[in-house]
């Protein structure tokens, strides 16, 4: 197991290098004068002496290859550069916001599973019934609705019309004000993120359960006189979760991208909102760092999914 994990980590290094090169190259080719962005004087002339000083201090006078190699070497030690907008280290700025995004993503994933697991299992058990048709219809609607549109509808209805929930996230941790204020702050953005995930997972769980319920070992378990609940939850569900775990892993990674819009709508202070603010300010080092951290998070989730495979299904061996 540990050999497999180490090998996967080593395999991730070339991937990260390619990703970092693409990110660095795209931002390098993006229009705009970094010196003016650093000085905050886009509408004013900068003297040649000031420009030379800024370029030397920030390393902007060096060739592209040298700047990229310096970025990689510093990134390997946790130094992702300095923000043009705030003049603060990029890594520490991201880490200040990252826990808020993780809490939002975790709540969204829990909510999606609370909806999709019972709905998908019920649709499979009641195959070709009214319940199955309704679950399939709801899943189709959930996949079709854009996250930002659903988020705006929640905001207008529950915050502006009914005044039940806050329109902005004033509480992002339980320790700040307690469980109930945190729940009120997180339920709308988490629901907005969970909608598409719950719909996709419901369809996948239903399909996977239908396939497993027709297997010989399930029929054998029933022939022994086991109760239906024992057959469903003790034999069928665990094996049906293998493809579902794959979908969940991809959705967790994609959730980072979805959080960009959701956090902006609900003013959630995570890295998604930080990314939007950085793009509007053309803060290239911050955009670069956020994109790299998102890629690393996605790769880490994929590694964890592979490890979970072996726990869910003992027939799978990681070598």
Please summarize what this structure is:
The chain is mostly helical. The protein is 78% helix and 0% strand. The mean pLDDT is 80.
Would you identify the regions where 5 or more consecutive residues have pLDDT less than 50? none
Helix content: over 70%
What's the story with the biggest beta sheet? none
Strand content: under 5%
Task: Specify Rg, calculated over alpha carbons.
Answer: 24 Å
Q: What's the rounded overall pLDDT mean?
A: 80
Report on the architecture of this protein.
It is a single chain. The protein is mostly helical and 319 residues long. Helices cover 78% and strands 0% of the residues. The protein has 13 helices and no strands. The protein is globular and about 85 Å long.
Write the layout of secondary structure elements.
Blueprint lengths: L1 H28 L4 H6 L8 H11 L5 H12 L14 H36 L4 H15 L2 H15 L12 H4 L1 H35 L2 H8 L4 H39 L4 H10 L3 H29 L7
Helix pairs in contact: 1-13, 5-6, 5-9, 5-11, 6-9, 7-9, 7-11, 9-11, 10-11, 11-12, 11-13, 12-13
Key descriptive features of the protein:
13 helices; globular
């Amino acid at each position: 197991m540990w050999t497999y994990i180490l090998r996967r980590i080593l395999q991730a290094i070339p991937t990260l290098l390619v990703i970092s090169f693409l990110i660095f190259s795209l931002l390098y080719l993006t229009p705009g004068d970094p010196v003016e962005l650093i000085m905050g004087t886009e509408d004013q002339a900068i003297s040649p002496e000031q420009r030379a000083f800024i370029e030397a201090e920030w390393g902007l006078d060096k060739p592209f290859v040298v700047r990229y190699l310096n970025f990689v070497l510093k990134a390997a030690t946790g130094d992702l550069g300095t923000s043009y907008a705030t003049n603060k280290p990029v890594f520490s700025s991201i880490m200040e916001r990252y826990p808020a995004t993780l809490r939002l993503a975790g709540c969204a994933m829990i909510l999606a599973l609370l909806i999709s697991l019972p709905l998908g299992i019920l649709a499979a058990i009641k195959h070709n019934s009214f319940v199955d048709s309704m679950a399939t219809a709801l899943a189709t609607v959930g996949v079709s609705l854009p996250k930002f549109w659903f988020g705006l509808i929640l905001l207008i209805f529950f915050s502006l019309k009914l005044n039940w929930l806050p329109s902005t996230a004033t509480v992002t941790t339980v320790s700040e004000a307690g469980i109930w204020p945190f729940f009120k702050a997180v339920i709308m953005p988490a629901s907005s993120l969970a909608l598409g995930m719950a719909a996709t997972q419901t369809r996948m769980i239903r399909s996977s359960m239908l396939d497993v319920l027709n297997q010989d070992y399930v029929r054998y378990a029933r022939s022994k006189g086991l109760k239906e609940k024992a057959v469903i939850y003790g034999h069928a569900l665990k094996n049906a979760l293998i493809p579902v775990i794959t979908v969940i892993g991809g959705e967790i990674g994609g959730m980072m991208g979805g959080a960009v819009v959701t956090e902006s709508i609900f003013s959630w202070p995570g890295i998604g909102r930080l990314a939007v603010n950085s793009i509007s300010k053309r803060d290239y080092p911050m955009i670069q760092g956020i994109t790299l951290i998102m890629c690393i998070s996605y790769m880490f989730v994929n590694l964890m999914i592979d490890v979970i495979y072996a726990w869910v299904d003992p027939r799978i061996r990681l070598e």
